[in-house]
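Deliverable D5.2: sample structural annotation.
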Amino acid sequence: MSTDAVDRTDTFTHRARGRWLDRWEPDDETFWESGGKRTARKNLMFSVFAENLGFSIWVLWASVVTAMGPAGFHFLDGLGKGNAVAVGNSLLLTSTPTLVGAALRVPYTFAIPKFGGRAFTVFSAGMLLIPTLGLAYFVNKPDTPFWVFMILAALAGVGGGNFSSSMANINFFYPEGKKGAALGINAAGGNLGVAQTQLFVPLIITLGTHIMAKDPGGYRFGITLATLMWIPFILIAMFGALRYMDSIRHAKADGSSYKLALTNPHTWVMALLYIGTFGSFIGFSFAFPTLLKANFPELAKIGWMSTIGNLAFLGAFVGSLSRPFGGWISDRFTGARITLYVFVGMAVATALIMASLAADNFPLYLISFLLLFVLTGIGNGSTYRMIPSIFAAAVKRRAAESGQDAAAALVTAKRQAGAAIGVVGAVGAAGGWVLQQALRLSNNHFGSMNPAFWAYAVAFLVMASVTWWFYLRSSFAVNRAPSLAYANV
């Protein structure tokens, strides 16, 4: 591994091969234009590819569980008939990766400064081989107990942690004025991994059953194909990161900012709101194939629709595409106002889902869910837009009251906002696990998921009220100078 010698000039030489960077000053315009920009883009490209695969493996179980019953695993038999035990087991297998991925987001954030972006990207991509190879092996053993698959599902959670390490790494590479776009591309590229898995995995499983036969052996062959197809891409991601990505030697974790962020009440308010947006996106993305198969089993009779996932991917797809729009529209109408509208819209979409189930109307059910997914994507963008604005407004107000230097205060605000984003992202992802557990418990205890959905609708209205109370009510504009008011977030 070569080391980049310290350069005393303002220029920077771009190299295709990966290396340790002793000097990295992206905010210096000459440095950025002379080679820094190309280096940052190179690292962003390989980061997006590796993160996309992380999301793909993270959500893999959401599609696999719908085929495991026909593959001969009795604990998921009857899923298409709404069997309570099968639905409960399915939601356990899809929610476990969500919880593990959420838990890993915090340590993965701190791993980049400690090990370097290049090495940790290789490691995090390589970890994806364990759950994929494990599933491909054990799915061909029909007597494998349920707990083994729970462990494999938990191991798939490493893909969810990749988001935080990838975002933390790219954050170091870009100047302040360009971080928003770079991080948005990075996040959207990862989120699209959910959609591509839910599109291609069911198709490959169906192809496998046609190659073999529509019996348990055929389904096991299809699941094996759909799992092993990711191995070459994982190996390419590892090779690409090892050969071409860079590590920044002076990238350091800001522990003090994390401590300040953890004690700031707005970090936890935003974490609650992000549970409603990203938690709903990831939770429903994982559960959507199961919900489709359990509520509309007759779709399985429509040829290539037999795996259901040919429609399930649409939810994650539209939710991923709408995320950048959420940030864009928040720049024009403020993140808090858009977030408020999003939560009200999500409550309405949830009510429409319930109406479609009561009427047994599949087109309305699909449209209502897609509307819900679009709103979660917009909300993901608007809530992330709120965080730096909230911390900047608070720090500016305190600086004005105490006479502190405004420029220094803004630097502190940016560090705290960055730390808060890591915490908020982890808590929000954990919300996806809570959502799926609510569906499972509702189905187990009430024989229906309806109580869980009505609880979601109420929760979304509560979150809309929280948004208004903390960031939009007129008292903020009255009690603070307009430029410092949280009403401007």
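Annotation notes: Strands lie at 20-21, 247-248. Confidence is low (pLDDT under 50) at residues 1-8, 475-488.
The annotation will be released with the project's public dataset once the embargo ends.
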